[in-house]
Each structure stands twice: as structure tokens, then as C-alpha cells.
Design brief:
heterodimer, A: 300 residues, mainly alpha, 16 helices, B: mainly alpha, two-stranded antiparallel ribbon
Chain lengths: 300, 274
């Protein structure tokens, strides 16, 4: 692959924020070998950072060290390069060393977002969950708009089976990105796991409402696709659980009102799922797992 | 000589070569120079501590909460809990940079003259003002000295007689059409007109724009600096509490009636007839 096309691909990865470490590493090293980086002008630093990260990911710390040396020669006191050096430390040294390094950097500049986040991730990796949670909460209290941070907090709580707290963290993501159905789906599933079924049902319906397309006249005949199918599964699950156990209908931790027309919702979800698995591209092809899905939705 | 015969003067082309273009050229160059000087003079923005950043962004939290309040993605219990938590925090001043005020502590940061951060801000503002003013005075003096006493251009638009005294300052010809103007007025035209050119070269936020100095007096810079740095967060938080209360009244959950709505959408329930 020529240097020019490799550089284009790499620039595309940077813009899309794709990790693709193996590909980046291969393309990047080929560019380095052919000495293509000398003609890149100011983009070469972004490229070196990208290559360094990919090299650490792939395990080739020697290449990463080369890139890091070039970057630190050019930008001596840069916080960005310091963060990269910290990541390099994390790769080969015990986590306590990296933690100490990050703490020093944070003392010098307490508002360095990248380093703070790295520190939190190291704490999580070391298993110091409580410390990680408290640092992350402090971080999010200061930098409220970091959606990634809220998602991470929700993830940590969910791993510890504290689904209520996870739901609270997710509600901040919902506020920050109200148009994103993926976060609503995640909240709905977390609510389901937490046992708050009315809330979960309503949120699954929110996802359906957001993603089922614009042609309202043909909705009843349209095929649900992608995330909508998952939401219909959620609706079916909730409806089933609620009809089996009437107590959960009113026992909502978030005081969500009980749903009306539960039977009709159950029917609708069943129908939608059957439709989703009835068509699969080519005419005559049967969607994978259709039989299983049909029997599952049909069972009481 | 009747006044309504259009006087058509023939101007020496050397006037165009040696006055018109040089004035414009000099003004463009001085403008660009000013822009770069201001850029060099600007000191890097002061770093804020963690508590300072937190204080600055605290209002953002409640604004984000309120932004979607009429069609909120979060259920009522969560919304109310967040709203109340923020409201209490604002009341107690939990987000203030120096921590919640205790008892009789007077808000000290609002006095602009004693707060060092705002002093720096004001000084920077004064410096830029000075840089703006000096070249203008110099150019005006230069034009008045060298390019005085003759007509430079004819304005393409008519003007009333009132402008005669300003635009034909050095020329004592009471019958001459006001459209024939001296070089000082060309200077003023350039002053306001070159802004567009600067925007092309230097981008939107350039410091070469002199027309802004005309509208903004030196006292405005002191006022702007006052508003900039020592924003009285206590007052802002108090106002935000009222906003939160208002939004709580407007709150509605997006998912509230969705069970009925989705059923209607898919034709399982008959649509409402009202």
C-alpha cells in the first residue's frame, strides 16, 4: 500500500476515532519504513501519537518508544505527551508506578482531564473499585458533560450489581444526549435488571418510539430493524413478567405509573417480533432462529 | 453659477496614485499590524483550579437538566431528585469555589480592584485599548498634515449640506457639491469599510477592526472586565434556583403516555377522536 493511501486511511481513522490497532500499526510502520513521515508537515505529530497508541495496544513497545521519543523531543512539557508517556508506563510497569506518575502530574495541574481519567481507569483495573468510584464521581462533579465518564460509572456500578446507582448514572447520560436511543435502551435494560419493571417497559417503548421510522402510515406493516427489535424483546419480557406477577406492576422504585393495556402491548410485541424474523433479505430465506423466536413468543 | 448644474471637476490622476491608494494601503497594513500586536500582547488565559472549574460549570448542570424538562427522558422521581439536589446545593453554596459560606462571611471576591485575577483582566483590556487608539491618532495626524487642502474623491451617493463641514474641512468652496470630499473622509470611509477585508484575511475575531473602538469607549472595557471575571456566583446560583423551580413546573416525562401512544401508532388502539 502506497504511503499516500496509508496516510489517508490513518487520517480517516483519526477523524472517526477508530481504534483498529493492528491495521494502524501495520500501515503506520510501513509509512515509517518508507520515510513518509518526513513530508507530512504538522500532521506527523498526530500520526505519531496514533501509531504510539496502536503499538502499545498491539504489544510492540519498541515502536511506541520511538514515537514517544520523537514527540517528547518536539514538545517537551506538553500535557498530551505526558499522558501518552503514562499510558506507555501502564503497559510495562506495575500499576502502582503508573498511579504514582499520574498523581505527580495531577498535583502539578489538577485540571488535566486526560491524566485524571487515566488514573481512574488504572484504579479500576487494579480492582480498587471504591476508590475508582469516588474519584470518578469527583471527576464527574467537576466535568459534568463527559458522557464517556458517566457511562463508565454506570458500567462500574453494574459490575458490582448496584443497578439503582447505575440507573442514576445513566440518567445523566440521557440528559446529556437525549436523542440517542442506545443510551435509552441501556437504561431500560438496567431498569429491568434492577427490578423496576414499569419504568423499564416505558423506556423500551421510548426506544421503539424513537427508532421505528418516519412513515407513520405504514408502521403496522413495516419490519422492525436493528435496535427496535431489541426494544420489542424488552417490551415482551416486561409484559410477560408483569402479567405473571402482578405485584411488580405497582412496585416501582422510581414511581413510574403502571402501564395500561398490558395485554395489548404483549400482543403487539409478539406480532412485531414475528414480523422481524419473518423476512430476511432474500425471498424464501428463513431468518436464523425464527423457529426458536416464534415458540418463545408464543409460550405463555 | 446655478447650483443645480452638476459641477464636474476633473481631478489630477496623480491624486489617485499618490493619495488614494497609499492611504488605503497604509490603513490595511496598520490594521494587520495591530492585529498581530494584540495577539502577541495577549497573555495566556489563567489556569483555573479544580474548584474554580467546578464552580464555573455548575450552572451548566442545571441548564442541561432544564433544557429538556418539558419532554424529559428521565422519569419524574429521578428528575425531582436531581432538581432538588441541585437546588439545595445552590442554596448552601456547595459549588462555590471557596466552599459554602459560613455565617457572616462577606462575599469578598466581588470587589474588582482587590481581586488579582480581575486586575489582570482589566489591565489586559486597557493594553489592547491603547494599542487600538495610538495608530488611529497617528494616521489621522499624518493625513491631516500631508493630505490637506484638496479634493480627493467624489462620493457615489448624495449627502446633505450638513456633512460639508466635516468632509470638506480644508476646502473653502461653499458652492461645491458635498459629494466632493477631502482625504480625511476617505480615511473615515476606509476605517469602517476595511472591516470586511480584515474578516477575509484575519478571520472573524480579529483585532484590526477600528469601527468597534468607535462604538466602545475606554470605560466599557472596565465594565466588561467587571462582568467577565468576578461573576458573582452566589447571585447566579440564586437565580438558577428560581429557574429550576420554573422548570420543575414545566416538567413532563417523555415516556409517560407512551404505552397508549405506541398502541395507537400501530393500530392496536383506535385513535382519539378529539
Amino acid at each position: 500500500m502506497s504511503v499516500h493511501s496509508a496516510l489517508e486511511e490513518l487520517a480517516k481513522y483519526r477523524v472517526q476515532n477508530r481504534r483498529a490497532s493492528q491495521e494502524v500499526f501495520e500501515k503506520g510502520t510501513s509509512v515509517l519504513q518508507k520515510n513518509g513521515h518526513s513530508k507530512m508537515g504538522d500532521e506527523v505529530w498526530d500520526f505519531l501519537e496514533q501509531l504510539a497508541l496502536a503499538a502499545i495496544d498491539v504489544g510492540r513497545l519498541d515502536v511506541a518508544d520511538q514515537c514517544l521519543r520523537r514527540l517528547s523531543d518536539k514538545f517537551p512539557q506538553s500535557p498530551r505527551v505526558d499522558c501518552l508517556a503514562g499510558i506507555r508506563l501502564e503497559a510495562s510497569e506495575p500499576p502502582e508506578t503508573a498511579l504514582k506518575y499520574y498523581s505527580e502530574l495531577l498535583e502539578a495541574d489538577p485540571t488535566n482531564v486526560a491524566v485524571w481519567k487515566r488514573r481512574i481507569s488504572v484504579l479500576r483495573r487494579m480492582g480498587q473499585t471504591e476508590e475508582a468510584i469516588s474519584e470518578l464521581s469527583q471527576y464527574l462533579d467537576t466535568f459534568y458533560t463527559d458522557i464517556e465518564g458517566w457511562l463508565e460509572l454506570a458500567d462500574i456500578y453494574a459490575r458490582c450489581n448496584q443497578y439503582d446507582y447505575s440507573l442514576q448514572a445513566l440518567s445523566h447520560t440521557l440528559l446529556l444526549a437525549p436523542q440517542n436511543p442506545v443510551y435509552v435502551l441501556q437504561s431500560a435494560e438496567t431498569a429491568y435488571t434492577a427490578g423496576d419493571l414499569p419504568l423499564s417497559l416505558k423506556m423500551f417503548l421510548m426506544v421503539v418510539d424513537m427508532t421505528d421510522g418516519d412513515e407513520t402510515e405504514f408502521l403496522a406493516e413495516s419490519t422492525p430493524l436493528g435496535i427496535t427489535v431489541r426494544a420489542w424483546y424488552g417490551v415482551k419480557l416486561c409484559a410477560r413478567r408483569m402479567s405473571e406477577n402482578p405485584r411488580v406492576v405497582t412496585a416501582s422504585a422510581s414511581d413510574a405509573s403502571p402501564p395500561k393495556h398490558l395485554g395489548l402491548l404483549d400482543e403487539l410485541a409478539t406480532e412485531r417480533l414475528r414480523v422481524a424474523y419473518s423476512s430476511a433479505g432474500q425471498k424464501g430465506d428463513i431468518a436464523q432462529g425464527r423457529g426458536i423466536v416464534f415458540s418463545w413468543v408464543a409460550s405463555p | 453659477m446655478s447650483v443645480d448644474a452638476p459641477a464636474s471637476l476633473y481631478l489630477d490622476p496623480q491624486i489617485r496614485d499618490w493619495v488614494l491608494f497609499p492611504i488605503t494601503l497604509v490603513m490595511i497594513l496598520v490594521g494587520v499590524l495591530r492585529h498581530y500586536i494584540v495577539v502577541l500582547l495577549q497573555s495566556p488565559p489563567k489556569k483555573l483550579s479544580r474548584a474554580g472549574v467546578r464552580e464555573q460549570r455548575a450552572l451548566l448542570r442545571s441548564q442541561i437538566l432544564r433544557a429538556t424538562s418539558s419532554k424529559s427522558p428521565i422519569p419524574p422521581a429521578h428528575y425531582k431528585a436531581l432538581s432538588r439536589h441541585l437546588s439545595d446545593a445552590f442554596k448552601l453554596g456547595a459549588y462555590l469555589k471557596d466552599g459554602p459560606p459560613n455565617g457572616d462571611a462577606v462575599s469578598s471576591a466581588t470587589n474588582a480592584l482587590t481581586d488579582p485575577a480581575t486586575m489582570d483582566g482589566m489591565m489586559a483590556g486597557m493594553k489592547t485599548q491603547l494599542v487600538m487608539m495610538v495608530p488611529q491618532m497617528i494616521i489621522m495626524g499624518w493625513i491631516n498634515f500631508f493630505f490637506q487642502g484638496f479634493v480627493l474623491i467624489k462620493l457615489p451617493f448624495p449627502l446633505t449640506f450638513g456633512f460639508k463641514s466635516m468632509l470638506q474641512r480644508s476646502i473653502d468652496a461653499p458652492d461645491m457639491d458635498v459629494r466632493w470630499v477631502s482625504s480625511l473622509s476617505w480615511y473615515f470611509l476606509n476605517l469602517f469599510g476595511l472591516n470586511g477585508l480584515y474578516r477575509l484575511f484575519l478571520g472573524g475575531d480579529n483585532s484590526a477592526d477600528s469601527s468597534r473602538d468607535m462604538t466602545m469607549s475606554p470605560f466599557a472595557s472596565a465594565g466588561a472586565a467587571q462582568l467577565g471575571q468576578p461573576q458573582d456566583f452566589t447571585k447566579l446560583f440564586k437565580a438558577e434556583r428560581d429557574n429550576l423551580e420554573l422548570s420543575e413546573g414545566q416538567y413532563a416525562w417523555a415516556g409517560e403516555e407512551l404505552d397508549v401512544k405506541v398502541l395507537r401508532k400501530y393500530g392496536k388502539l383506535l385513535p382519539r377522536l378529539d
